[in-house]
């Protein structure tokens, strides 16, 4: 089992009303110094079997056709390192 | 890092030989030469951006203008018309000091590229047109057309469009009260997403788009300006002037309905305090359009400092700022001593507002960037004196053949059983089936003034709580009819919308239209367009309902294949007391059903010919506008005097479709008798225009018949509201359960 993370963000030029709402709320809550906020989505996919090129290609395809709306969003795919040893 | 110098007017004059990418921006060679001639020099990059976008088909109406003039020339005298064609939207007097503004526009192409945002921003754009007239928006309507219902791409486009309309309208708190959904494979790849809105104001609140009074300030308010919808301008920015920039800007604009809601409230409060001299919303062509139109409609010139425009993306070039189509922005002209108060109101509503310029006493539009003058033009040459084309048009060679392919000669059902099967198939076909799955995603009743909404013949909104004064709106268009005969097709669209308004008891007053056609460079399409406009203008003149505004959408075609010519017509009507409205649903058993009007054998372009035979040919139903007017008068009188309890207009699908809808909505069946002189098939399925079916309480029968007789409207008793099935005596009976399953199951099965 391995985890693949797909991050989806609105393209930089596209208006992000949610991010703007967060940005406007920050100073009201006393958090100064943040000039822009953009909000995205993170998908964590648990993949059966090895994450080889074929598996990544498939994930790329599903991200492009389903997880992201590539007309207005960009996405990145990355494999998360095994955590077993990193624990402690 | 080397930067090319800012392309100022001075720089342009000094470098006459610099090549500009006018072709990439969509200008033709002679159009570019005309710009050079007007300016007496080559344009700067910013000027080229403005001219190219304002002289585009979308903004300049360069192919359609010569025909659209008829709407003005043939406009009937109407006391109701307060503001006609040319402003953001037309305004109509509805009595008691109230005025109503309404308009329909298209957002076809953006909705194909990105269905949700395309449709959402379509709603946003039409609502801003309404605000810009000084009115409070009270309702929206959405006439939609998609490819075949079972095509995979329809399943991509339709749910996105419907969610976008619902998402934006529901967030704004505007009820969606009408529209249509039509499927036809001709719209595959070119869905038609038209959006209409209605607004209400007092007469004295009407505002116009003009900048007058030297020294008055120009205020841009609403959302920050970003790189939305400037695919064209980025060519100018990235390839010619500054290679370091991202070369591809998205054509898609994202809407923010909550920002729009603030814009509505903020604008209306500023109107209320009489702070605004002139106002314009920013839609297509953004600041280019707003500044040049405000300046050219006013008395003076205008000076704008582009550096003051609040940006979402600091890398934007001046050309891009001028062309950006970022949503939820407006431009107001305000007297200097009222600026502070205006800005205060904006701040209260959390709307960013910035003075970006002022009205001058000259006659030039001057725009500055980083201290340099980058635009110096006569605003009229940008906004109004664009190219006008007398495009060649010719009746297509296939038109005769199409009309000769007579639908009346198609094989008809031979037995009662066959007739019954065809009726069932018809009421279940995607175009005739219930659209509740779609329309229930819209909020119909928010604000509490909705009197009628889909699936009624027209949407109706109460305007005045005290008197019950209300307005009704219906939109209609039948591309199949228009394909067979564009002149008659446009008139039939008007006749149907007019009839729909009258059927609910309202008096039709005025028209807005959205003309959806293929490429104007195709003489056949241009002929369709010319004929449709001529037909609509003639019919509006005869019915006394002026066209108050609208929009033209051309190039709706894939390759060589154009969509059916699709003029969509919205008719606005007024009703003195909404309590007198007439609904579609059968109200009480025992009431008598009457068919108003004449039924002929007319199957050209009919739903029957499409569903049963997949056929399009022959001639559309005959148009008789005097009959439509008489029918409307009868329906309005009958509603006012309480002579009818339900009424439904007859259109596609014919009488049986109307009766089935009334029966299902009312939960009461009907027994029908085929009148003498008609066969069952023609009686049930012909689509003759100028007809309606009404339910008359027995106590009113004599009075109703007398009224129709005295005014010379043919009226035939065809049955009675009764039982739990729709029965055609001597032919067949279909239970309401069976009909409901067929009628209501289709759309969810295809799309849910």
Automatic annotation (TrEMBL), chain A:
<dbReference type="GO" id="GO:0004642">
    <property type="term" value="F:phosphoribosylformylglycinamidine synthase activity"/>
</dbReference>
<dbReference type="GO" id="GO:0006189">
    <property type="term" value="P:'de novo' IMP biosynthetic process"/>
</dbReference>
<comment type="subunit">
    <text>Part of the FGAM synthase complex composed of 1 PurL, 1 PurQ and 2 PurS subunits.</text>
</comment>
<protein>
    <recommendedName>
        <fullName>Phosphoribosylformylglycinamidine synthase subunit PurS</fullName>
        <ecNumber>6.3.5.3</ecNumber>
    </recommendedName>
</protein>
<keyword id="KW-0067">ATP-binding</keyword>
<keyword id="KW-0436">Ligase</keyword>
<keyword id="KW-0547">Nucleotide-binding</keyword>
<dbReference type="GO" id="GO:0005737">
    <property type="term" value="C:cytoplasm"/>
</dbReference>
<keyword id="KW-0963">Cytoplasm</keyword>
<dbReference type="InterPro" id="IPR036604">
    <property type="entry name" value="PurS-like_sf"/>
</dbReference>
<dbReference type="Pfam" id="PF02700">
    <property type="entry name" value="PurS"/>
</dbReference>
<dbReference type="GO" id="GO:0005524">
    <property type="term" value="F:ATP binding"/>
</dbReference>
<comment type="function">
    <text>Part of the phosphoribosylformylglycinamidine synthase complex involved in the purines biosynthetic pathway. Catalyzes the ATP-dependent conversion of formylglycinamide ribonucleotide (FGAR) and glutamine to yield formylglycinamidine ribonucleotide (FGAM) and glutamate. The FGAM synthase complex is composed of three subunits. PurQ produces an ammonia molecule by converting glutamine to glutamate. PurL transfers the ammonia molecule to FGAR to form FGAM in an ATP-dependent manner.</text>
</comment>
<dbReference type="InterPro" id="IPR003850">
    <property type="entry name" value="PurS"/>
</dbReference>
<comment type="similarity">
    <text>Belongs to the PurS family.</text>
</comment>
<comment type="pathway">
    <text>Purine metabolism; IMP biosynthesis via de novo pathway; 5-amino-1-(5-phospho-D-ribosyl)imidazole from N(2)-formyl-N(1)-(5-phospho-D-ribosyl)glycinamide: step 1/2.</text>
</comment>
<keyword id="KW-0658">Purine biosynthesis</keyword>
TrEMBL record, chain B:
<dbReference type="GO" id="GO:0004642">
    <property type="term" value="F:phosphoribosylformylglycinamidine synthase activity"/>
</dbReference>
<feature type="binding site">
    <location>
        <position position="550"/>
    </location>
    <ligand>
        <name>ATP</name>
    </ligand>
</feature>
<feature type="binding site">
    <location>
        <position position="513"/>
    </location>
    <ligand>
        <name>ATP</name>
    </ligand>
</feature>
<dbReference type="InterPro" id="IPR016188">
    <property type="entry name" value="PurM-like_N"/>
</dbReference>
<comment type="function">
    <text>Part of the phosphoribosylformylglycinamidine synthase complex involved in the purines biosynthetic pathway. Catalyzes the ATP-dependent conversion of formylglycinamide ribonucleotide (FGAR) and glutamine to yield formylglycinamidine ribonucleotide (FGAM) and glutamate. The FGAM synthase complex is composed of three subunits. PurQ produces an ammonia molecule by converting glutamine to glutamate. PurL transfers the ammonia molecule to FGAR to form FGAM in an ATP-dependent manner.</text>
</comment>
<keyword id="KW-0479">Metal-binding</keyword>
<dbReference type="InterPro" id="IPR036676">
    <property type="entry name" value="PurM-like_C_sf"/>
</dbReference>
<dbReference type="Pfam" id="PF00586">
    <property type="entry name" value="AIRS"/>
</dbReference>
<dbReference type="InterPro" id="IPR010918">
    <property type="entry name" value="PurM-like_C_dom"/>
</dbReference>
<comment type="similarity">
    <text>Belongs to the FGAMS family.</text>
</comment>
<feature type="domain" description="PurM-like C-terminal">
    <location>
        <begin position="214"/>
        <end position="369"/>
    </location>
</feature>
<dbReference type="GO" id="GO:0005737">
    <property type="term" value="C:cytoplasm"/>
</dbReference>
<dbReference type="InterPro" id="IPR041609">
    <property type="entry name" value="PurL_linker"/>
</dbReference>
<dbReference type="Pfam" id="PF18072">
    <property type="entry name" value="FGAR-AT_linker"/>
</dbReference>
<feature type="active site">
    <location>
        <position position="58"/>
    </location>
</feature>
<dbReference type="Pfam" id="PF02769">
    <property type="entry name" value="AIRS_C"/>
</dbReference>
<feature type="binding site">
    <location>
        <position position="105"/>
    </location>
    <ligand>
        <name>Mg(2+) 1</name>
    </ligand>
</feature>
<feature type="binding site">
    <location>
        <position position="61"/>
    </location>
    <ligand>
        <name>ATP</name>
    </ligand>
</feature>
<comment type="pathway">
    <text>Purine metabolism; IMP biosynthesis via de novo pathway; 5-amino-1-(5-phospho-D-ribosyl)imidazole from N(2)-formyl-N(1)-(5-phospho-D-ribosyl)glycinamide: step 1/2.</text>
</comment>
<feature type="binding site">
    <location>
        <position position="103"/>
    </location>
    <ligand>
        <name>ATP</name>
    </ligand>
</feature>
<dbReference type="InterPro" id="IPR010074">
    <property type="entry name" value="PRibForGlyAmidine_synth_PurL"/>
</dbReference>
<feature type="binding site">
    <location>
        <position position="128"/>
    </location>
    <ligand>
        <name>substrate</name>
    </ligand>
</feature>
